[in-house]
């Protein structure tokens, strides 16, 4: 993998309503000066997958950022690629991960994103939304003895002879235009009106890394404030949902999220699945705590 330091270069592009935005490529020097909580911060213009690169050869505590991904992965094995210069892919190889809390790691990165971009919220487990449109996606992967797979609440406490390599990645749509969106329910910073963040991605990434440093510390310490904040930011809670699980489809009300990061639907906790909101709810609920004692669905991972 060739690492290339990119100094600020301005690119002009046009977004709807003839709103012209100037986008500055990432200033890696600024990030290294201002963000000190990671061992290394590297930038590449193009790579297959930042997650895969770090899992293969990264140093724990390393950050890898790419302007373009050609073979990225989304949740549940989906392929994810971005047109050149339209998105930011960022991954962190976790130093000394607490294996028993792997399922909460994507929630920590999701909260870091909402901390960074005001007005966003979360769909379980880790989609970053503006209204009902997806702005960013998150994927955590754990490499157990050379086998990389998606990390979820099902891995918590599973035990391993050696500590796994754990990576968390986020892909943010920066200046995708309407005809570039991968799915109709997606959006980008420019389309959603976040022109300041789109025109200065270095400042946004700096804020994101600082926010994730704090959320990662909460995750490692088992700080319940992380879950409290997630439940407030997660608009899935209280929604009527359709949940596609490895065992089949479930419909019902999403009652909450367990302390392991599982979604509770009609009294049953699920560690993995794909959620569709069946009715619109654009703002987070009050976050009021509920006394929940769900049964757990048995899911088989492949």
UniProtKB/TrEMBL annotation:
GO terms for molecular function: biotin--[biotin carboxyl-carrier protein] ligase activity. This is biotin--[biotin carboxyl-carrier protein] ligase. GO terms for cellular component: cytoplasm. Its EC number is 6.3.4.15. Residues 25-224 form the BPL/LPL catalytic domain. It comes from Corynebacterium cystitidis DSM 20524. It comes from the Bacteria. It is an enzyme of class 6 (ligase). Keywords: Biotin, Ligase.
């Amino acid at each position: 993998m060739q690492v290339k330091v990119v100094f600020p270069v301005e690119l002009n592009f046009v977004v709807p309503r003839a709103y012209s935005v100037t986008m500055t490529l990432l200033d890696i020097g600024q990030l290294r000066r201002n963000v000190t909580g990671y061992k290394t911060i590297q930038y590449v213009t193009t790579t297959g997958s930042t997650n895969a690169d770090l899992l293969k050869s990264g140093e724990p505590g390393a950050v890898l950022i790419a302007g373009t991904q050609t073979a990225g992965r989304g949740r549940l094995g989906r392929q994810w690629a971005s047109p050149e210069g339209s998105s930011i892919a960022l991954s962190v190889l976790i130093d000394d991960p607490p294996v028993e809390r792997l399922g909460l790691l994507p929630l920590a990165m999701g909260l870091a994103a909402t901390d960074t971009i005001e007005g966003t919220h979360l769909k379980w487990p880790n989609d970053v939304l503006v209204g009902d449109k997806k702005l960013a996606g998150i994927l955590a992967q754990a490499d157990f003895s050379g086998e990389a797979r998606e990390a979820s609440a099902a891995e918590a406490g599973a035990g391993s002879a050696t500590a796994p390599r754990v990576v968390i990645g986020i892909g943010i749509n920066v200046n995708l235009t309407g005809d570039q969106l991968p799915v109709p329910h997606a959006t980008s910073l420019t389309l959603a009106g976040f022109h300041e963040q789109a025109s200065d991605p270095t400042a946004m990434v700096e804020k994101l890394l600082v926010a994730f440093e704090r959320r990662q510390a909460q995750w490692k310490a088992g700080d319940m404030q992380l879950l409290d904040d997630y439940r407030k930011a997660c608009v899935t809670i209280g929604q009527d949902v359709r949940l596609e699980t490895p065992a089949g489809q479930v419909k019902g009300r999403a009652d909450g999220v367990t302390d392991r990061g599982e979604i509770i639907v009609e009294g049953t906790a699920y560690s993995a699945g794909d959620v569709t909101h069946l009715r619109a709810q654009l703002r987070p609920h009050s976050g009021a705590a509920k006394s929940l004692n769900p049964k757990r669905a048995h899911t088989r991972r492949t």
